[in-house]
Amino acid sequence: MFISILFPLYALGQNQLSQDQVLEDYTVFKEIITTGHPSLYEYTSKPEWDSIFGTFEQKGIQEVRTSNDLFKSITSIADKAKDGHLIIHQRKMDTIPPLFPLLLKIIDGKLYTDTDDFKIPIGSEITSINGMSSQTILKDLLKYAPSDGFNLTKKYRQIEKEFGILYFYEYGTKANYSVKLTTPNGGTKTVEIASKSFENIGNRYPKRNSHFALYHQDTNQLDYFKKRIAEKWPFVYYLDSIKTTVLTVNSFGLDPKGFKSRLIEIFKEIKKKKAVNLIIDIRQNIGGYRINAINLYSFLTDEPFKQRISESAITNVLPHEENVIHTLSDYSEFFEMYFASAKKESGKWILTEDHAQAEMIPYKKPFKGKVYVLIGGNTFSAASAFALSAKNDQNITLAGEETGGGYYFHTAQYSALYELPHSKIMVRMPFVKIDKYVLDHSVPKGSGILPDIELILTVKDL
């Protein structure tokens, strides 16, 4: 039931590749990112990229024998772009073998059990798996979770959700796992655990203690998960004793017309409740349509606002179009329309006119009370754009952890899904760099949107 929430539906393929096939697939990938990626050199300089490519071409490529070897290599290379929208997908397969079964939470860079399955107490620290330390495993898995800049929050949140499949990508399939752990009372032991099916792991996902069903006095964890975690449409609940409304927005990837209609009804309801505080929870919101983020913020402000200072692209032609398997529109048509008023400078087209600027006006009756926004590592793309609008607003307080979406810029707007010809590895590539409107320029480059009040989950909380 919950497989699509856990992982993308791609799995490991071990088809053999010749050296010529490896070279052709790698060359397509390299040419796509070097001719099309709009911020390739923001975090990694051209000499550094030349060294990365050169090292792989001279040494690494000789060790690639299968599509999975190439997937690991390309994923590692793509990670150097530090772009959460540049995503490498495994080739498609019909079946997935059994996986490492524990559902884990990363706290302070360590792995802890998030359920009491297999007679392991919740909050037990996993110190090693099959003799390999958890720190080494985490380090090896980081490349599979792209994020904007240097922050680890998005990487950790993704690894938590996809630990079983990512462990499989890195180390292969195992029938059993020897897990060394430290229990909450300080005892140490080693437990032998059999691998479990993809479906078994997905069906246990709602039992995660970090969803806090029991804290909210709901003993039906599955029902709570559906209502609070998996629900995409905005919903509210009320803390009447402190005149507070909690508005949860788990996605901006919804029909904009329906989304705005829902917001209008919600804010009418909030007004009737005479709430003086509003908490907006976007910790699970990975983004979607930008207009939905704009419309939500319009209910919180009484002034016109701004989100972007420029957008840019480095090509007006889609590279390797013959390998593209999906886009939302023809790139040439998109470029001709979207960048019609752009100026070409230093090999790139720069647009300083925000096409959505006219939409950034306050709703006729915005909320007048105190606003708090809850953010986290899963807060990404359009959700990070909303968080930044809130960050620029002196009347709104952000609480939680650093977002996965970048503070100063990110790439998006137009993306193409490529399939490499022999390995069938898929590459999702964005083509537009978006420079954001920010007020605080002291934030280190490579950061996400930082909370005003940092709230980090502790082992005791778990």
Automatic annotation (TrEMBL):
<dbReference type="GO" id="GO:0006508">
    <property type="term" value="P:proteolysis"/>
</dbReference>
<keyword id="KW-0378">Hydrolase</keyword>
<dbReference type="GO" id="GO:0008236">
    <property type="term" value="F:serine-type peptidase activity"/>
</dbReference>
<protein>
    <submittedName>
        <fullName>Periplasmic protease</fullName>
    </submittedName>
</protein>
<keyword id="KW-0645">Protease</keyword>
<dbReference type="InterPro" id="IPR005151">
    <property type="entry name" value="Tail-specific_protease"/>
</dbReference>
<dbReference type="GO" id="GO:0030288">
    <property type="term" value="C:outer membrane-bounded periplasmic space"/>
</dbReference>
<dbReference type="GO" id="GO:0007165">
    <property type="term" value="P:signal transduction"/>
</dbReference>
<feature type="domain" description="Tail specific protease">
    <location>
        <begin position="244"/>
        <end position="454"/>
    </location>
</feature>
<dbReference type="InterPro" id="IPR029045">
    <property type="entry name" value="ClpP/crotonase-like_dom_sf"/>
</dbReference>
<dbReference type="GO" id="GO:0004175">
    <property type="term" value="F:endopeptidase activity"/>
</dbReference>
<dbReference type="Pfam" id="PF03572">
    <property type="entry name" value="Peptidase_S41"/>
</dbReference>
